[in-house]
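lol forgot to send this yesterday, sorry. C-alpha cells for the thing we talked abt
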C-alpha cells in the first residue's frame, strides 16, 4: 500500500485544491485512498464515507448525466468528465473529475480520480444554461501547453451526444468535428490565444461543427485564458453557443445581396413578362428577386427550389447557377430556347414546375421573347419568368415600343439624335423618346438643340423624356428643357400606350 500511495501522492502534488479518490480495478472497484480535501468538500469523515458507500466506487456517483456512474464504462473513460456525488446531507454536488490510470510498483492496476468543485465554474455553468450554451475548459501543463480538456453535458447535448464515450474529452475529438473549411482558422486562433502572453489575441470565432447526425451547424465559440505570473497559461475556459439560425439568416441576406450586386455590376436589365396580358411590368433585379424570396419565409423553404437559367453563353449559365446554389436554390441551365421549352414541358407533365425561369433576351434561334411565349402556353402565369439583357437600354426600349406597331429608329447619343433630325426632311419623325442619361450630349441638351434647329417641325415634334426617376423635379426639368411629356424607366406598357395615343 505504501508504494500505491507514492503514485497517489504524485497526483496530489500536481493538482492543487482538488480532492483525490483512488482505488483498484478489482471486481468492486475498491477504494484505497481518500484525501482530506475530498472528504471536507462533501462533509464526510473517512469512516462515514466508507460506511455509506461500502468502500466501493460503484456507489459513489449519481445522476442521469453522470458519465462516471456507468461502471461498465468506467474503464474506458480517460481524461476529464463531469459527475455528481452526494454530500453528507444527501444533496447532489456537481464536480469535475480527472481520471488517470496507473500501475503501482507491484503491478496492480490503479485508478486515480482528481475531483474539483469550483464555485466560479458552477456559476458560469448556470449562466450557460440560461443562455442555452455549453461550457468547456482546457487545463494546461506547467509549460502552458494544453494537457486535459473538459466539455460540459450541455456542450455535448447541443451536438446531439450524450456522454464521453460518444464525444470524449480531448482536443482531437473537437478538431475532427470542425468543418474542414473552418478548421485552419479556428486552430490558428485557438493556438494564438494560448501562446500570446499579453492576452491581446482573443479566441472568439464562429465555425461549423458536425452534429451527431452528420449534419453541420454554426456555433459561436469564445474563451478566456488564465495565466500564471510568468505569463504561461494554466487554463482556458469558454462558452459554446448555437447560432445556426442567426448565421444562416445572415448568410442568406449576404448571398442575396451578392447575387444582386453581381447582376448590377454586369449592368443587366430585367423584366418580368406577362405576355398573355401583352404587358411588360418592368422591375429592378433587386425588387424581383426580393419578391421571389419573400414568398419563402424561411431558409429551409429556399433549399432545392428549382430555377432554370436559359442563355446561349455557357459561362453565363454556369456563373448564374453557381450564384443561385450559394443561396440554396437548385439551378439548372440550358443554352437555347428550344431546350428550355422542352424541359418546362417535361416538368409540367410531371406536375413539378420550375419556381422561376431566367431567360436571356437575345439568343440565336428562339430568342427570349419567343421562348417566354412558348413557355406561357404550357404553364400559364403560374411560373415567374425573368428576362435578362446586357444590351443597351435603347435597344430594349426599341423592342418594347416596336411591339405597339410603330416604326422605330434609334440614336446612340444625344448629338447623333440632333444630327439625324437636323439633316432630315420635314416630318421624318412623329414622336421622339429622349433618354436623359446619354453620353456626348444628354437629353436636356439634345432637346434644347432640337428646339432651336432650322427645321420648323423640330420645334413642335413631341418629345417624351425617359428617366429612371419620376420625381416632381424631374418632370419640371423635362418641361423646362422643352419636352412635352415624361415617362419613367423601366417602361410600363400601359403608360407607354397612353403617351403614344396622346401625341400621335
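and heres what i got for the seq, position by position
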Amino acid at each position: 500500500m505504501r508504494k500505491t500511495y507514492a503514485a497517489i501522492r504524485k497526483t496530489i502534488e500536481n493538482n492543487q485544491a482538488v480532492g483525490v479518490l483512488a482505488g483498484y480495478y478489482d471486481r468492486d472497484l475498491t477504494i484505497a485512498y481518500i484525501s482530506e480535501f475530498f472528504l471536507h468538500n462533501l462533509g464526510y469523515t473517512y469512516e462515514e464515507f466508507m460506511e455509506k458507500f461500502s468502500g466501493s466506487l460503484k456507489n459513489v456517483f449519481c445522476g442521469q448525466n453522470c458519465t462516471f456512474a456507468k461502471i461498465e464504462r468506467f474503464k474506458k473513460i480517460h481524461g476529464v468528465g463531469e459527475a455528481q456525488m452526494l454530500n453528507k446531507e444527501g444533496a447532489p454536488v456537481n464536480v469535475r473529475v480527472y481520471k488517470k490510470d496507473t500501475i503501482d510498483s507491484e503491478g496492480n492496476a490503479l485508478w486515480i480520480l482528481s475531483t474539483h468543485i469550483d464555485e466560479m465554474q458552477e456559476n458560469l455553468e448556470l449562466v450557460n444554461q440560461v443562455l442555452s450554451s455549453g461550457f468547456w475548459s482546457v487545463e494546461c501543463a506547467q509549460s502552458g501547453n494544453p494537457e486535459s480538456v473538459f466539455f460540459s453535458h450541455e456542450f455535448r447535448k447541443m451536438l446531439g451526444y450524450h456522454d464521453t464515450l460518444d464525444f470524449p474529452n480531448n482536443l482531437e475529438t473537437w478538431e475532427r468535428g470542425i468543418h474542414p473549411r473552418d478548421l485552419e482558422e479556428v486552430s490558428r486562433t485557438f493556438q494564438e490565444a494560448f501562446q500570446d502572453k499579453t492576452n491581446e489575441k482573443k479566441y472568439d470565432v464562429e465555425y461549423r461543427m458536425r452534429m451527431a447526425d452528420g449534419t453541420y451547424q454554426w456555433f459561436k465559440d469564445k474563451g478566456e485564458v488564465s495565466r500564471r505570473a510568468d505569463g504561461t497559461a494554466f487554463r482556458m475556459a469558454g462558452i459554446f453557443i448555437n447560432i445556426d439560425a442567426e448565421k444562416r439568416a445572415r448568410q442568406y441576406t449576404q448571398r442575396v445581396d451578392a447575387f444582386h450586386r453581381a447582376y448590377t455590376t454586369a449592368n443587366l436589365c430585367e423584366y418580368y413578362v406577362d405576355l398573355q396580358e401583352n404587358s411588360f411590368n418592368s422591375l429592378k433585379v433587386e425588387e424581383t428577386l426580393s419578391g421571389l424570396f419573400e414568398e419563402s419565409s424561411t431558409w429551409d423553404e429556399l433549399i432545392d427550389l428549382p430555377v432554370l437559367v436559359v442563355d446561349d453563353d455557357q459561362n453565363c449559365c454556369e456563373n448564374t447557377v453557381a450564384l443561385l446554389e450559394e443561396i440554396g436554390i437548385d439551378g439548372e441551365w440550358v443554352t437555347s430556347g428550344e431546350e428550355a421549352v422542352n424541359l418546362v414541358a417535361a416538368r409540367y407533365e410531371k406536375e413539378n414546375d420550375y419556381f422561376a425561369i431566367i431567360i436571356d433576351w437575345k439568343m440565336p434561334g428562339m430568342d427570349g421573347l419567343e421562348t417566354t411565349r412558348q413557355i406561357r402556353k404550357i404553364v400559364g402565369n403560374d411560373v415567374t419568368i425573368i428576362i435578362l439583357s446586357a444590351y443597351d437600354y435603347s435597344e430594349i426600349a426599341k423592342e418594347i415600343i416596336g411591339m405597339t406597331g410603330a416604326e422605330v429608329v434609334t440614336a446612340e447619343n444625344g448629338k447623333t439624335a440632333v444630327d439625324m433630325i437636323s439633316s432630315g426632311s420635314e416630318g421624318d419623325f412623329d414622336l421622339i423618346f429622349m433618354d436623359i442619361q446619354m453620353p456626348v450630349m444628354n437629353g436636356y441638351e439634345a432637346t434644347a438643340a432640337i428646339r432651336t434647329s432650322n427645321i420648323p417641325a423640330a420645334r413642335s415634334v413631341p418629345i417624351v423624356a425617359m428617366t429612371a426617376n419620376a420625381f416632381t423635379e424631374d418632370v419640371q426639368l423635362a418641361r423646362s428643357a422643352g419636352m412635352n411629356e415624361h415617362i419613367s424607366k423601366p417602361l410600363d406598357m400601359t403608360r407607354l400606350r397612353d403617351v403614344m395615343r396622346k401625341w400621335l
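DSSP finds 19 helices and 20 strands in the chain. anyway ping me if u want another try
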